[in-house]
Amino acid sequence: MFAQILSFFLLTFSAAAPDAHAEEFKLGVVDYGRAIQDIEEGKKSQSRLDTMYAGEKAKLGQLEAEYNALLTEYQQKEPVLSTEAKKQYEQRLVDMQATYQQALYQADWEMQGAYYSAMEQLMSGLRITAELMGKEGNYDLILESSQGMVLFHSGVDMTDALIARYNKDHPSGTD
After folding, report:
1. Are 162 and 34 in contact (CB under 8 A)?
2. What are the start-end ranges of the E strands in 80-152?
3. End-to-end alpha-carbon separation of the chain, Å?
4. Which CATH architecture has domain 2-6+15-169?
5. Please, are residues 171 and 39 in contact by the beta-carbon 8 Å criterion?
6. Contact 70/93 with Cβ under 8 angstroms?
7. What is the pLDDT of residues 17-69, one digit of tens each?
8. DSSP percent split of the chain into helix, strand, coil, nearest 5
């Protein structure tokens, strides 16, 4: 399917530019996935996300430890507890489990939001830089290779140049 779409664009471009044979068609390829991992801002974003994840994991671990401690206490005391005391323990366990589930849901929601926000910002900057490089380099077409496309082409892989240019244009400050 992709090959058909690419062929369509290439044929359309060839038909629109009658003297295209006089000039070589210039194709660039960018792997945005690798670029995000390799640019300095991407590394810092990943570090921030890892720190955020570790903090959330620690909070959840604390809640889980408290739940397990109460469960162990309940199991040890259960044989001598009155029916009313058993119900109170069981209610506390249910409440703690609900609190844990809510905290887990909230942490997941926050992590996803932070991840998507960081990726959106990085991708936007990379695309702007790639567009600028494309104009400066007189590229006719720049394809993104990180979207699962398998390409057989003679295009120029611009990923390393994009990473270098982005890092130059967006010097990251120290955190």
Report:
1. no
2. 141-144
3. 45
4. 2-Layer Sandwich (3.30)
5. no
6. yes
7. 445 444 688 888 899 999 999 999 999 999 999 999 999 999 999 999 999 99
8. 75, 5, 20
